[in-house]
Amino acid sequence: MKNNIYLNSILIICGLLSNFIVHAETLDRIVAIVEDDIILDRELTLETYSIVQKLKANKVMIPPAFILRKQVLERLIVDKLQRQLAERSGIRVSDEMLRNSVTDIARRNGLSVEAFRKELQSQGMGFQGFEESIRNEIIVNQLRAREVGSRIKVTDREVNHYLETQGDVNKEQVQYHLGHILISVPEAASSSVIQLAKEKASKTIDDLQKGADFKQTAVAVSEGGNALKGGDLGWRDLGQIPTLFVDIVVKMNKGDVSDLIRSPSGFHIIKMLELKGVNKHIVTKTRVRHILIKTNELIDDNEARKRLLSLKERIVDGDDFATLARANSDDKGSAINGGELNWVGPGDLVAPFEAAMTKLAINGISEPVQTQFGWHLIQVQEREDKDNSVEHKKNKIKEQIRNRKIEEETELWLRRLRDEAYVDINLDRL
Q1: Secondary structure (3-state) at 312
Q2: What is the pLDDT of residue 338?
Q3: Is residue 391 within 8 Å of residue 241, measured between CB atoms?
């Protein structure tokens, strides 16, 4: 009798364990193998839920579940491949770098880190999960900077060519709010695969011209990096638009949908969502000079401050700043010119120096200010607002050409990374 009871107990326990294992396997079903890693159904479901909430918040109609899950899975695969490559490359994010990034994000939102933590929690977001997403974002950005950004160069000739072809840099410049859909084509694809992609892209254009919602269509069919944002590329001026689209975009009006645009990545469709102009760039320029005392084995921080305070007293009593700079400043490049740094604009100098300079009145002399270079005594000589449009535009053009090249190269690099990887998708079995 006891043996029967014992046997029955074992059978019941085994049955419960079997049900638990089947349930666990359902929860943790592998939906994709990515190189030597996996993506679980649980990961896909959580990410899909997150995307759905963002689409709802942006009032974008949710596509059918199987389409959305496929889109989200592709993004997870590409993210996984990038993180794997970053790990193999030894790219790491220190805890200090992560804390600084989170602090900066909180500050930009006008909150302390603790208040930002509570705000995230009130929105149902875990702070630890948020930190992990920021860590991954930093890692991916560092990887892309190494793999793509480090190879991108912009020459003065390219900037001058841009100026010649785009006209006077003082003219008010139009900005474009663009939508983008990509129907991708794998590298070395057969003619039949290319034809199928072209037919899909042509049908997409027909649907859009008949009134289909662009954002919903982008979420459903686009394979571009902004697909899950409704294909929204945001506001861009001409220099930020990929070279492939420039000649087409400048001829488009609000609401226009482009014809098919072919590139190595596939077939692109552009929609002009909005247009607007921009104003001149006015900056405050400051003519400034300084005396620098560097610290060393003989001069510590206290001694450096003491020397500068003594020099300040002499200047207030009538001694000439330029003469004292020539005799005492450790910045030999400016000392020969009486400490002159000439006209500087925002961002030209290190932050502590600029912050102290900005607070000074004309002819005002600062207290000793410490930077990574040593201790400074600062005097503002003049200050004026200047139209910096030409210089600003040239710098901006260089940055735009670089960003354009990075964007184009990144798209190809990601497609190549995806095509060359071993990926086994089991989504169709669910």
Answers
A1: helix
A2: 95
A3: no
